[in-house]
Amino acid sequence: MPRTAAASKPEDLRQAVLDASVKLIESEGLAALSLRRVAKEAGVSHQAPYHHFANREAIFAAIAHEGFAGLAHATREATRVKSARARVRAAVRAYVRIAMERPAHFRIMFRPELVNLMNHSDAKDAAHDAYAALVALGQSLKDDRVAAGLSTQAIVDTLWSACHGAASLVLDGLYSGAKEADPDAVAFGDRVADSMARLMSIDG
Amino acid sequence: MPRTAAASKPEDLRQAVLDASVKLIESEGLAALSLRRVAKEAGVSHQAPYHHFANREAIFAAIAHEGFAGLAHATREATRVKSARARVRAAVRAYVRIAMERPAHFRIMFRPELVNLMNHSDAKDAAHDAYAALVALGQSLKDDRVAAGLSTQAIVDTLWSACHGAASLVLDGLYSGAKEADPDAVAFGDRVADSMARLMSIDG
DNA sequence: TGCGTCGTCTAGACAGTGTCTACTTTGGCG
DNA sequence: CGCCAAAGTAGACACTGTCTAGACGACGCA
Q: CB-hemisphere CA count at 13 Å for B24?
């Protein structure tokens, strides 16, 4: 009786570990994640995950990889929006939406105490790709002669800060715990998206 | 021989524990913090801190309290700046500066897996006070008929997001680890501050 | 067929963690 | 002096990540 239903083929266990990890984090918080609980959840011994991940950090790195890939994709989608103003709005909303839909991924991506991207080139490459998507978006805004004539770098940094701040605050800011506030959080994100769109859609 | 030099009077140990915790986090990262290491650092037994803090989370709560108090103070300082544009700039710069000067405090303030503010009313009150300071700043901008006529709530949310995003990215974003980048980080923060100031200083 | 090797998994051990309980010590006050 | 509460010590427990050793099956090759 080698395994339970959770992993019926080799290579299944790898994904099962990732899925169980994300599920556990989303239901009980980051602090609750332990390799042993995940292994138990997946119906294997506490050592089985080590055949697919070098260590605990490698699991986080794999999750961060998934997260950055999703962020890059969403950013590129937003970049395709025609009007500059709507593009800014779409970018901020997408960033916040990703954080809300995959909170475990999002937190892990930006917690260096869990993953040091330097040690995981896959995840690092995905992060750089997400950044590249954001730069392309900033360039498109610059090309549209928008944002009061700010430099491309300034547009990128500022837009990124607004996106990231809104997403972080929705997850871990005053809103967190205070109300389990889905509706409030969505409203917050939309407000920041609309405001940034209006502030940035001034000709330069 | 009850204690070492670290704590020579009662009540000293409390602050010694907090200081040792912050120092340990700043030198080895959040993951390195353990009560037992802190106790050893302070020259007491592994149980001594429990006479000043109910548990590990209470230590984090005390640090978060310090951090929010500093943030509220800095925000109120920035609010005193005369011109609206310079006020925005000062607020963003102050927020980022606080994050860089006290990285351990800043991270703990926004990591619910370490402190649930709901369980620590001191820290929660300090957080609400910091938010109140930010709202006052937003109101002052609204009074100056700035930020393209956005509502006060929109101004507050957007400014907060930009501040928080810039600070978070400087600490835990792509810049982190990539270069240990003090100069780059400062430049990043200044760029966001200048950009937000320009974007927001449009009459409404 | 038999043999060896490799990938996958199990089991046991170790140091380190937060926290519970039980104790000793110490300083101040009636 | 005697007492007590505050402050500190020591030991134990369950739990963690990770090291080491082994078991088991599938596979290629003689």
A: 21
